[in-house]
Amino acid sequence: MSGSLVNALTLQVITGLQLGAIYALIALGLTLIFGTLGVVNFAHGALYILASYAAVLVAGHTNFVLAVVLVPVFLFLVGIVMERGLIRFFYDRPHTDQILVTFGLAIVIQEALKWAFGANNIPFPLPPWGNGVVFLHEYLPFLEGFVVFPKWRLILVGVSLLVVVGLFLLLQFTTFGLTVRAGMREPDMMRFLGVDVTKRFAVVFGLGALIAGVAGVFGGPITQVSPEVGMAILVPSFLVVVIGGMGSLPGALVAALILGLALSFSAEYAAVQQIVVYLIAVVVLLVRPRGLMGKKGVFE
Amino acid sequence: MPGKLIIPAATRRRILKTGTALGGLALAPLGFVRGAWAEEGPLGTFPVKGDTVKFGFCVPQTGAYADEGADELRAYQLAVKHLNEGGGVLETLKPSKLTGQGVLGKKVDYVTGDTQTNPDAARTAAQRMIERDGVIMFSGGSSSAVAIAQQYLAQEKSVVFMCALTHSNDTTGKDRRRYGFRHFFNAYMSGVALGPILAEDYGKDRRAYHLTADYTWGHTQYDSMKQATEKQGWTTVNNIMTPLGSTDYSQFLTAVLNSDADVLVLNHYGKDMVNSLTQASQFGMRDIDKNGKKMQIVVPLYSELMAKGAGDNIEGVLGTANFNEKLDDAGSQAFIKTFTDEYGFPPSQAAHTAYVQTLLYANACETAGTFYPPEVIKALEGFECEGIGPGKALYRAEDHQNFHDILVVKGKAPSERKDQYDLLEIVKHVPRAEIEYPADTFPGELGPYKPA
């Protein structure tokens, strides 16, 4: 293989990884909420952009590190309020009702942001330590010549990885995680056993929102901060969830990666690029209606 | 439905009138006798009844271009105020028949609609204005796809449409319409104005990579920029069509980095441009060397609102504009001053074109002495004036494109800015003569003055 081809492939794989990273972060929250609560949360994209706006404000007035700490906490609280104030009334309603109410909420959040900050982007400067590019050729000896990639996007991949590992540890090795996982499988049985599933579910919803918060802080400078971004990012993220299998966390990860790579490798072919995500979704759903790692019988 | 205006409440008098009109039509030779009632039968929303005349302002109030829309709306409201009460550009426009006491003795009123930056929604909104509100003229933008859809509707309904923000060559090229007029400049003019300056600043041996918004405006701007830069000796490496409203351009920017291009041309507008420019800057494209030269980014169509969104990334980036709030000719100053007094901040180029279009339409009505659309159109065709911006402006009869001086602008460094609105500096005043082109450069048919 010629050197330039290796360079091109490496860059495209990394680009695919970082595209997938942001979808993964949003899809994780979506699928976590669906898997535990059975709610399709179409307001998840709006939570993401809410977090971006909050991050711009906090980072603008203080510094970025404080935004990294405060914004996810703020989103956690928003999630709890949202669940207690609205979503819980829709647990027993059909999915279409849930979609309608969360979609409506998304529009309310979007328009409120537009009212407060205007419809155009507001600049979200990177913190000094995240600015600039990384000289990949200095780290990867098989690359030839001069190959660069924005540092911030590599940080995003790292953050995404941390969140995934963190979530995995939380669900796999804590009592809370055990209850939630059991609740995902057999919510009725958990109730019979006297576990207050709903209270934990509120926390799960908060957790999903918190992950959207992390995504908003780190993804904001990349996807830009404007009210419509929430909707724009919701669609591919939702597809990630569908392709991965509704409610499956590892499925969401795999699907995010696949979509990221597909987008990256088809970038130069506009006609294909715009449909590739949907093409993959169609093929996967035809061959395996429950999604790559979906549970049998869920949305099949 | 034009028929609606005749059939209901048909009084004997009206039937007689209509009968006379139709009879006159049948007898009269082709062509029009100005002011003759027999020729000016009901057409579109004409005649205007009562002592007010309604204009329709159809701008994006939601969607990606909502801020541009909001600024256009401010300008329209100001234009209506000046038409009714005098002031502003009414004092500088020459020749002008505007009185500052309404138009043709009628007070100007207006209705607004939301295009949502979506051709279908725009069409519905405009249709409502025409059929329900009976507007005699409608105006608005942004997005060339919307403007073109509106022009076709205008022709169909025989109601004049004054385009606001639309920069595609198609608007007055292959999709030109008898009932549509554009004051804003176009992609071709951007290319002609920008080409020599790019060659001067960055050299003649450059390799350009284009990223282009995938709709009518992007396509024509890519063509025009390619042509203009290749004329200067540049090579076009590649072009990628990016979906309108993309939020992440990394996959495209990676392709640019992988190529041997040393200039990136962003045929993006509004948010797309803010996103792609910011991300290109994150990819280090403002700081790296390619082919032994410093890599450069070019944004052919610039706006103040975009510059604001892109923050510090605009520093040194070249582009073109139709208007800038630093222009010092009498017409621009009259507009800038009244706008700033009214709203507390300077107008954008979207606001300027919206304002000017309203005045030009109203003046054409006064000149024609009637609201009858074919006569108003004829008054606009070939109309040349001064006092609405720098130099003289001409509405070319063949394609309804307005020709006037345009600007090459450059993003200011944060340290050079006087205030938060001081984002762009004027690099060159491009005179009208330099950007004029033959009307058949982009072939198209205007269509008839009246439906057959």
Tell me the layout of helices and strands.
The complex is a heterodimer of chains A (300) and B (452).
Chain A: H1 3-37, H2 44-61, H3 64-85, H4 95-117, E1 133-135, H5 136-139, E2 148-150, H6 151-173, H7 175-185, H8 187-192, H9 197-223, H10 229-244, H11 249-265, H12 270-287
Antiparallel strand pairs in A: 1-2
Helix pairs in contact in A: 1-6, 1-9, 1-10, 1-11, 2-3, 2-4, 2-9, 2-10, 3-9, 6-7, 6-9, 7-9, 10-11, 10-12
Chain B: H1 12-27, E1 52-59, H2 66-85, E2 107-114, H3 119-133, E3 137-140, H4 144-157, E4 160-163, E5 180-182, H5 187-202, E6 207-213, H6 216-231, E7 235-242, H7 250-258, E8 263-267, H8 270-282, E9 289-290, E10 293-294, E11 296-301, H9 304-310, E12 318-321, H10 330-343, H11 349-368, H12 373-380, E13 384-386, E14 392-395, E15 402-403, E16 406-411, E17 424-430, H13 432-435
Notes on the structure:
The complex is a heterodimer of chains A (300) and B (452). Chain A is an all-alpha fold. Chain A has helices spanning 3-37, 44-61, 64-85, 95-117, 136-139, 151-173, 175-185, 187-192, 197-223, 229-244, 249-265, 270-287; strands at residues 133-135, 148-150. Chain A has a two-stranded antiparallel sheet. The longest helix of chain A is centred in the N-terminal third of the chain and has 35 residues, at 3-37. The mean pLDDT of chain A is 87. Chain B is of the alpha/beta class and 452 residues long. Chain B has three domains: 2-39, no CATH class; 52-184 and 325-404, Response regulator (Rossmann fold), CATH 3.40.50.2300; 188-321, 3-Layer(aba) Sandwich (Rossmann fold). Chain B has 13 helices and 17 strands. In chain B, the strands form four sheets. In chain B, strands 7-6-8-11-12-16-17 form a seven-stranded mixed beta sheet, with helices on both faces. The interface between A and B is large, with 46 and 41 residues.
Q: So, the CATH homologous superfamily of the largest domain in chain B?
A: Response regulator
Content-based structural category of chain A: mainly alpha
Order of helices and strands of chain A: HHHHEHEHHHHHHH
Overall shape of chain A: it is globular
CATH class identity of the largest domain in chain B: Alpha Beta
What spatial order of strands do you see in the largest sheet of chain A?
1-2
How many helices of chain B? The count is: 13
- Shape call of chain B: globular
Question: How big a fraction of the residues of chain A is strand?
Answer: under 5%
Q: State the major sheet of chain B.
A: 7 strands, mixed
Domains of chain B (count): 3
Largest sheet of chain A: 2 strands, antiparallel
